[in-house]
Amino acid sequence: MFEALYERYGPQHWWPAETPFEVMVGAVLAQNTSWKNVRRAIENLKDAELLEPRALYDLDAEELAELIRPAGYFTRKAQRLRNLLKLVVERYGGRLDRMFATDPSTLREELLSVNGVGPETADSILLYAAGKPTFVVDTYTHRVLSRHGLVEAEIGYEGLKEFCEDHVPEDVAHYNEYHALLVRVGHEFCKPRPKCEACPLKAFLPAGGPVGIEG
DNA sequence: GACCAGGCACATC
DNA sequence: GATGTGCATGGT
């Protein structure tokens, strides 16, 4: 499946950000939100020269919310960002290099303890900002694998992540590309209502078509 | 106008 | 423990 995706789409150059901190912020802003909206919000932060830990930490919640408005859920996400910034600044002195020197499974727990950082956000930070070999799964990963009959629809985040890590060679660059390609094919084909006709993964579908689709 | 988007926390049963 | 709901902008 990876080869089929890579042949169709080529390298995705993820994460689309200039710094690890931008990845962290983007990971929160991207929750259930289209990337174009996230980019507007990131641009606002860049234009205001606030895209660094200390500066964002010192910013009022209301001003932060206004800057990230285009990303949607802006009052929630402002609070979530501030919760995460509290960890970064108060525990690691605003130094991501120190934060990322922490043992990965310990850091994962610390990230998950932040209100507003769930498993996908934590893993995105670990893989795309910290460069740790953790497989990031999301809605598209779940749809692609369950519709192809590879996992049960009821599998949870951790189960799905485990499945991927058990079946994909452990390599940061490969994990990076694989998740990005799943998102890419998801955008185009693996929607809530699937469009399998021209999908590069069509050959991998079971005989009766995608699993668990009504109609 | 309907549907969709790179989740998460919280209320309620 | 499982299921439902609010959050919000912006594109197709």
Task: Describe the fold and architecture.
The protein is an all-alpha fold and 215 residues long. The protein folds into 2 domains: 2-11 and 136-204, Endonuclease Iii, domain 2 (Orthogonal Bundle); 20-129, Orthogonal Bundle (Endonuclease III, domain 1), CATH 1.10.340. 58% of the residues lie in helices and 0% in strands. It has 12 helices and no strands. It has helices at residues 2-9, 20-29, 35-47, 53-58, 61-67, 74-92, 96-99, 104-112, 119-129, 139-147, 157-167, 172-188. Helix 1 crosses helix 12. The protein is globular. The mean pLDDT is 97. The structure holds a DNA duplex (13 and 12 nucleotides).
SS summary, helix count: 12
- Specify the CATH architecture of the largest domain: Orthogonal Bundle
Listing every helix as H and every strand as E from the N terminus to the C terminus, the arrangement reads HHHHHHHHHHHH
CATH secondary-structure class of the largest domain: Mainly Alpha
Low-confidence stretches: none
Structural class: mainly alpha
Q: What is the radius of gyration computed over CA atoms, rounded to a whole number of angstroms?
A: 18 Å
**The CATH topology of the largest domain:** Endonuclease III, domain 1
Essential attributes:
single chain; Endonuclease Iii, domain 2; Endonuclease III, domain 1; 2 domains; 58% helix; DNA-binding
What is this structure, in a nutshell?
This protein is mainly alpha-helical. The chain is built from 12 helices and no strands.
Mind sketching the topology for me?
Layout (H helix, E strand, L loop, with lengths): L1 H8 L10 H10 L5 H13 L5 H6 L2 H7 L6 H19 L3 H4 L4 H9 L6 H11 L9 H9 L9 H11 L4 H17 L27
The chain binds a DNA duplex (13 and 12 nucleotides) through helix 2, helix 3, helix 6, helix 9 and helix 12.
